[in-house]
């Protein structure tokens, strides 16, 4: 495996002092398609490569029969304790979509934080996201509950995932008006075949307020790795159905063609190019990508060092428009 430890670069999330790797390791597979041993191997390899930003959620992986949610947090917490490296890892987790406590009422936010702290075995969550906006709950209640967690020292910084432009702007305005904790990042669904889920009003609010974007589905459920091709047959993966749907969209094959062209010219894999394109987008700080095995990490990590030329970015932009 290529050694990336010489790359000590970090990016700062929004107006916070959180300095994180330009590639965030997604923990959704831990306790799902990766058991504890596999998860530890991935985490070890990521950390050895200089990575320090791990993303999880309280509801991962509640969709697996027999699981209740929190399995990913538990795996990460066990790993942190066994490696003794808590201070060197920025842990991001989320609240609001656990099947036993959906929504963002203040009581749910506080309960979720407390339970995540226990599973992770840590005293403070570095970055705490609202997992999905809850329009039934006023932003005043949500932000106030999050601010209390910050003041209590249980959360370092707050962020929002799956939120619309208007609600984000309203939340930020309330924080500013009342002098409360303020979102420093958003986690949108965003990639080469899903640009409208972020670009436009939401990206505008993020840019205008000095926030950072940490996109999920950065590789479109694996589609942008190039594993899924027209007439290529079935790929054995838990995400195959989600990834294959992009083949039915007009831009899907066009994006693969553009990725192949750039990847061949650069001597890298399509996934590396897809992540490098995303990292080059305005406001994007650290795309999220996950790996079931340590062997899947090198092309993801390689994106950190790949700087695409203007003509390469333009080619990808046109194919994904």
From TrEMBL:
Residues 22-319 form the NADP-dependent oxidoreductase domain. InterPro entries: AKR_Detox_Biosynth, NAD(P)_OxRdtase_dom_sf, NADP_OxRdtase_dom. It comes from the Bacteria. This is Aldo/keto reductase. It comes from Kitasatospora arboriphila.
């Amino acid at each position: 495996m290529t050694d990336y430890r010489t790359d000590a670069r970090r990016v700062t999330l929004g107006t916070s002092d959180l300095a994180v790797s330009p590639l965030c390791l997604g923990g959704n597979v831990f306790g799902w398609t990766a058991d504890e041993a596999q998860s530890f191997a991935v985490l070890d390899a990521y950390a050895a490569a200089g990575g320090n930003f791990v993303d999880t959620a309280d509801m991962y992986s509640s969709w697996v029969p027999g699981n209740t949610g929190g399995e990913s947090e538990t795996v990460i917490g066990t790993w942190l304790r066994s490696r003794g490296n808590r201070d060197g890892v920025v842990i991001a987790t989320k609240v609001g979509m656990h099947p036993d406590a959906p929504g963002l009422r203040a009581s749910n936010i506080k309960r979720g934080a407390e339970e995540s702290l226990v599973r992770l075995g840590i005293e403070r969550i570095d970055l705490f996201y609202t997992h999905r906006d809850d329009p039934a709950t006023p932003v005043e209640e949500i932000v106030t509950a999050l601010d209390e967690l910050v003041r209590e020292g249980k959360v370092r910084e707050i962020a929002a995932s799956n939120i619309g432009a208007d609600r984000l702007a309203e939340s930020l305005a309330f924080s500013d008006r009342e002098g409360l904790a303020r979102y420093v990042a958003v986690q949108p669904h965003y990639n080469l075949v899903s640009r409208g889920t972020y670009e436009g009003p939401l990206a505008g609010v993020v840019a205008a307020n000095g926030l950072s974007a940490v996109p999920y589905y950065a590789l479109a459920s694996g589609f942008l790795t190039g594993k899924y091709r027209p007439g290529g047959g079935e790929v054995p993966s838990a995400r195959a159905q989600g990834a294959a749907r992009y083949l039915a969209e007009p831009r899907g094959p066009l994006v693969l063609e553009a990725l192949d062209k750039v990847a061949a010219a650069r001597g890298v894999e399509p996934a590396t190019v897809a992540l490098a394109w995303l990292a080059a987008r305005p406001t994007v700080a650290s795309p999220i990508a996950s790996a079931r095995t340590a062997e899947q990490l090198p092309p993801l990590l390689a994106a950190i060092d790949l700087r695409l030329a203007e003509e390469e970015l333009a080619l990808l932009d046109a194919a994904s428009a």
